[in-house]
Write a structure and sequence with these properties.
This protein is an alpha+beta fold. The chain has five helices and six strands. The strands form two sheets. A four-stranded mixed sheet has the order 4-3-5-6, covered by helices on one side. Strands 1-2 form a two-stranded antiparallel sheet.
């Protein structure tokens, strides 16, 4: 699937038609991890059977996920008999975790995808510290108000 559009120059259609192919659903959530999460942490055992799906997910997907999200911290912690979990940290320090005990690689993928979706629903931090206290229905911040608060 894709979008087809024509560039117009001064209201006249050009003879050039461009097609932009949208990414597959698989790729789109993977590429947007860094916009929805602040950190993704995996904990699992290096050898236990209950961590096999998590190990396979990390082995088969880490490189692609890191290439698509170079600034997103992916933390991988292993230990003897560590129960497999994945933890997502969102803005404002909110965290969500899933137990990955005895899940297949595909099921682990679905859990990570669910964490990414949860990130689309969470409150995002802003670039300006004073915006945290600005009501949602206010579009403009008065400079005098900001300077009086010491920001």
């Amino acid at each position: 699937g894709g979008l087809v559009f024509c560039i117009r120059d001064r209201g006249v259609s050009c003879p050039f038609v461009f097609s932009i192919h949208t990414q597959t659903k698989k790729m789109s959530w993977r590429a947007r991890l860094s916009t929805n999460l602040r950190e993704l942490r995996f904990l699992f055992s290096e050898s236990a059977k209950h961590s096999e799906g998590t190990r396979r997910f990390v082995e088969n997907n880490y490189s692609e996920l890191k290439a698509l999200n170079p600034k997103l911290p992916f933390l991988i912690r292993t230990g003897t008999e560590t129960r497999p979990i994945v933890v997502a940290r969102y803005d404002y320090g909110a965290e969500k975790l899933f137990n990955l005990d005895d899940l297949s690689e595909q099921e682990v993928t679905e859990k990570v995808r669910e964490l990414a979706f949860i990130g689309t629903q969470t409150l995002k931090a802003t670039a300006f510290p004073w915006q945290e206290s600005v009501p949602q229905d206010v579009d403009v911040v008065d400079y005098k108000d900001v300077s009086q608060r010491g920001w």
